[in-house]
Write a structure and sequence with these properties.
CATH superfamily of the largest domain: Dihydrodipicolinate Reductase, domain 2
Largest sheet: 8 strands, mixed
Helix content: 25-40%
GO molecular function: nucleotide binding
Structural class: alpha/beta
Organism: Staphylotrichum tortipilum
Radius of gyration: 21 Å
Number of domains: 2
CATH topology of the largest domain: Dihydrodipicolinate Reductase, domain 2
Protein name: Oxidoreductase
Number of helices: 11
Pfam families: Gal80p_C-like (PF22685), GFO_IDH_MocA (PF01408)
């Protein structure tokens, strides 16, 4: 009887004691502390803004006293008992908190965006290749069952070769004029985290993971509401700030001929910040083929990759020959259903990474290299626009 592999020793960056609804606590910790997660991983260290802040988080989440607390990324990088470093900080802290670990050849998982700009993302990808570590980036849509179902329909020829795809999406922020105080940086393009690089980019990546990389793409950007209201926890306006991030994004493109797309199959993608017209869905995505059309509807959730129990995401197929519309069922695996919605697809990334380490399985997640290319595509589209 073979001995099960030792759990991967993991360090979390950005697990805050004071922000217990953060992405690290909502999306990563539930899987890592689940029975399945603990069979694959063990948390051995935290890195926060200071060692004291890391110790506070260890206490707040009742982590073992053996978990080491760091406030210096270089010290974490030197810890030889850390196999995988996972970064959940604000995007403009990603590079500085992981680059030393990357250079030391550690495996590193960074939430999307990989860095605040394409140059920093490319530097991380280059350093990682030089040092020889593995990488994961949190463009988690590639592992959601919804995307898997869409990919199966398209690759299985259910609608024939694709001739066009259209998306009409609202969100990125819940309000068209207001931003929570803690997200003021969403109004500052230089920080690198905003509705374009996060809300739009997640969906844009899913589109290309289903239909293939676009051969040609153009962007048209607008800032309709340059003044943005900062709101406190009760929704009261604290002050107004000027934004330099587009709030209306229109992207068009074409695919080369492939086994799933006709030559010059087109993409039209419209993404607008804030709420849709009452009664309209937050996201509608159609994939029009030679023999039929696929439609995805998400009533209230823009981030279809992480799920929302109040916004069931529906896939339908219209067969042109029979003129019948069929609902396509999809679901999470049983172990995922035991986790909160945000943690289900994050858990799938962790599961795939552990399988890659254990057996050499295929990487079904986004690496630093792939993320750097996505950064370059997104930044290239936006490069000629000014607020």
């Amino acid at each position: 009887m073979s001995t099960p592999p030792s759990p991967i020793r993991l360090a979390l960056i950005g697990l805050s004691a004071t922000a217990q609804t953060s992405w690290a606590s909502r999306a990563h910790l539930p899987y890592l502390l689940s029975p399945l997660g603990q069979s694959r991983y063990t948390i051995v260290a935290l890195l926060n803004s200071s060692a004291a802040a890391a110790r506070a988080a260890i206490a707040a989440y009742n982590l073992p006293s053996s978990v080491r607390a760091y406030g210096d990324p270089a010290e974490l990088a030197e810890d030889e008992e850390v196999d995988l470093v996972v970064c959940n900080t604000r995007v403009d802290k990603h590079y500085q908190t992981v680059v030393e670990s990357v250079k030391r050849g550690k495996d590193v998982y960074v939430e999307w965006p990989l860095a605040e700009n394409a140059n920093k993302a490319r530097e991380l990808a280059t350093e990682l290749e030089r040092a020889g570590g593995r990488s994961v980036v949190g463009l988690q849509g590639v592992k959601t069952p919804l995307v898997g179902a869409l990919r199966g329909l398209v690759e299985g020829g259910r609608v024939g070769r694709v001739v066009s795809s259209e998306l009409r999406v609202f969100g990125g922020l819940n309000d068209r004029v207001g931003v929570p105080e803690g997200l003021q940086y969403f109004t500052e393009k230089v920080v690198g985290g905003n509705i374009y690089t996060i809300g739009f980019a997640h969906v844009f990546h899913m589109v290309q993971s289903v239909l293939g990389e676009l051969a040609m793409v153009n962007g048209d950007f607008h800032l309709q509401r340059p003044e943005t209201q900062l709101q406190d926890a009760e929704g009261k306006v604290v002050k107004a700030v000027q934004s330099n991030v587009p709030d209306l994004i229109l992207v068009s493109g074409k695919w080369d001929e492939s086994t799933i797309t006709q030559k010059n199959a087109t993409l039209h993608f419209r993404f607008r910040r804030g709420q849709p017209f009452p009664g309209e869905p937050a996201l509608e995505w159609t994939i029009n083929g030679e023999k039929g059309e696929i439609r995805v509807i998400s009533p209230t959730a823009t981030f279809i990759q992480v799920g929302d129990p109040a916004s069931p995401r529906v896939i339908e197929v219209h067969d042109f020959e029979t003129n019948q519309v069929e609902k396509v069922e999809w679901d999470y695996e049983d172990w995922q259903k035991e986790l909160p919605f945000p943690a289900r697809v994050i858990g799938a990334l962790y599961e795939n990474f552990a399988e890659v380490k254990r057996t050499g399985a295929n990487e079904e997640y986004v690496t630093f290299e792939a993320a750097a290319k996505r950064h370059e595509q997104l930044e290239g589209l936006l490069s000629e626009w000014t607020a």
